[in-house]
Amino acid sequence: MADNPNSIEIKPGDFAPLDKQAGPDNEKIAAPSLTFGQDVWRRLKGNKTAFTSFIVLILLFLMAFGGQALYHHDPNAQSPKYANLPPKIPGVNIHGLNGHIKQSGTDVDAYKQAGAKSSVHYILGTDYLGRDLLARIMYGTRVSLEIALIATFIDLTIGVGFGILSGWKGGRVDLFMQRIIEILSSVPSLVVMVLMATAFQKTGMASIIAALALINWTTMARLTRAQTLQLKNQDFILAARTLGESAPKIAWKHLLPNLSSVIIIQTMFTIPNAIFFEAFLSYIGIGISSPQASLGTLISDGQKNFQFLPYQMWYPAIVLIILMLAFNLLGDGMRDAFDPKSKR
Amino acid sequence: MRKYLLKRIFYLFLTLFIVATVTFFLMKLMPGTPLQNEAKLTASEKASILAQYGLDKPVWLQYFIYIGGIFKGSLGLSFQFSDQAVSYLIGSRMGPSMQLGGQALLVGVVLGIILGAIGAIRKDTWADRLATILSILGIAVPSFVLAILLQYYLGLKVQLFPVAGWSGFTYTILPTLALAASPLAETARFIRTDMVDVLSSDYIELAKAKGLSKFGIVYHHALRNSLIPMVTLIGPLAAALMTGSMVVENIFSVPGIGEQFVKSILVNDYPTIMGVTIFYSALLCLLLLLTDIVYGIIDPRIRLSGNGD
């Protein structure tokens, strides 16, 4: 028996109690716990394109809203003597930025021609009335952004309110409200905007904002309604109702936080849309009117001289394009960040 | 199906009725008359001109006449071109707009599908990135900026195409390109997303396992299934084309409806503004209805029902 290799003698002394602390703790959470917001921010930072867009947008906002504090030039001050001067940055000698211009084939110093002192220089040149183009672009960007942001805020409020109400109430109310949206969205939005802008006649910020806000909210309403329909049958809402919470409070405390990602993503696409339509309306001449400037009016003004002074249109157009790009790319990034499961 | 159709057609008319009503009263709120050189006219001359346009009647009567007229295909008289009926104006300018819109749609959708498919097949490579950049640029560069740039660089500098006007096919190339950018971008983005989805489904795996060529898989299996949801893009694309046509036609002096619309806005020609508004709305409504019907036919999974959703 003792030769049997399979027989192992096990004595109680062979066992020792394991130290509870020493073993791996399966319950331990190694990474710091993140809130939803932190998690989104982390994913957004990981997305290079979106993060760059974010930085670019911050810079553009700083330029539009804080630029005038650093660059003391009145965007509306006219000096006809210095009209149509090309960009000139002292010390830079690249054609296009040195104040020279091609006139019938020969290179001419436009500043000398205008009899400007050597200290006079406009970083991005001047327009046909001798207004500083850089100052005007800053001012125009601010107007464009203000219009887009206010309009977006209004249509966010209307859209979310309408969507939640429609989804929450359901039944006849929902049916009726859906018909309104259906009718509104089968009218080409631009036509409505044109109508509103002409109807208010006093072309200017208020009429554009009203026109933009009135038409753009339907997508937001549709999205929030669909989400509300899903959410309202979930247990936590049922619990809140059982506990006697009032409907507005449920909407505010329980629905809105859960809708926030949909709302934020949609907002990121509404803003560039609003910027585009504002520029469009101003471009065809029924938006912001002349002494005021927006990116649309600047492009439209610059277009008149495009053949000879292309910079007058290029610069505002570039700002507009960068603005649209940044918002769209950030929007894409946000969508990925809020919904990591999405395949895009 | 029939019940659904009837319901939709009813809503179509309701929508158009509301559009016509709102437009009419908005336009009535505004100043502006068909009178030119108002100061020089005598009172009786003024009265006779106003009577010609039916403006001597009370507003509510004008409204009923207008709505009644729509059913007879009449949209009133233009203020700008005296004696010209708005419906005639629209009809005579429809050709160029439709041709331009059709060409732009064709170019945009075909190129968009190719671009989107390349993006999806070569996902996460430089080709995908290039396609994405192109399609994002198509959204970010407004049509009027693109139109001006095309006109200047390809029309004036290189002199490849005529700068403006409308007398032959070569004249349509630049405006078509300018107009096609936005449908191209939308289509490419849409197709890419959709095809990435389709390419990861099981039947594509099966097709690969059967040994089909890559082209065969993409063309016969992936693309066809990605194209079905494309139908839903018709509405937004048409709307985008209408928007674009207003500036593009203006920049290239194409005698189309969009150009006329902008002109009418600038000279306060209300009957024409109203007429074009109703025309555009009708066109979009019809396209949306058509979209839903076509979608129901080609994708049997979609059930047409009268109950929303």
Automatic annotation (TrEMBL), chain A:
Its main location: membrane. Belongs to the binding-protein-dependent transport system permease family. OppBC subfamily. It is found in: Cell membrane. Pfam families: BPD_transp_1 (PF00528), OppC_N (PF12911). GO terms for biological process: peptide transport; protein transport; transmembrane transport. The keyword ATP-binding does not apply. The chain crosses the membrane at residues 51-71, 147-168, 180-200, 206-224, 262-286, 313-331. Residues 141-331 form the ABC transmembrane type-1 domain. It is a multi-pass membrane protein. CDD domains: TM_PBP2. This is ABC transporter permease [Lactobacillus sp.]. InterPro entries: BP-dependent_transpt_permease (IPR050366), MetI-like (IPR000515), MetI-like_sf (IPR035906), OppC_N (IPR025966).
Automatic annotation (TrEMBL), chain B:
It is a multi-pass membrane protein. Pfam families: BPD_transp_1, BPD_transp_1_N. GO terms for biological process: transmembrane transport. The chain crosses the membrane at residues 9-27, 100-121, 133-154, 166-185, 227-252, 272-298. CDD domains: TM_PBP2. It comes from the Bacteria. Residues 94-295 form the ABC transmembrane type-1 domain. Keywords: Cell membrane, Membrane, Transmembrane, Transmembrane helix, Transport. It is found in: Cell membrane. InterPro entries: BPD_transp_1_N (IPR045621), MetI-like (IPR000515), MetI-like_sf (IPR035906). GO terms for cellular component: plasma membrane. Belongs to the binding-protein-dependent transport system permease family. This is Oligopeptide ABC transporter, permease protein [Lactobacillus plantarum JDM1]. It comes from Lactiplantibacillus mudanjiangensis.
